[in-house]
What does this fold into?
Amino acid sequence: MDIIKELTTLEQWHAVWKRSMDSPILLYKHSTTCMICARAFKHLKAFHKTEEDKIDSYMVNVIASRPVSDEIAKDTNIPHKSPQIFLIDKQQIVWVTSHWKITKHQIRKAIHQLSYSS
It folds into this structure.
């Protein structure tokens, strides 16, 4: 099973959005034509390789799955960027960042802050 699951349909997104009511999730918006996205995706994968705290993670290809990306922007009330990463808990965006700020360290920090605030 993939550590980072790709969302390709609105139904999948709605299920993940609902699932965030039970446990936090990471959501990454990715473009296959962007070098900054390639770097950010490497950081997300590196986070999962080294992190003992397990969190469900999802990725949306913003080119191939534009309707899903648009729906995420609507549901979260956060304008689209790519790359962009969200930490979502109980359908609330507890952390969001984009571009060069997506690093393994920043992801870990956001998740640990959520763990300590819960």
In short: The two ends are 28 Å apart (CA to CA). The longest strand covers residues 92-98.
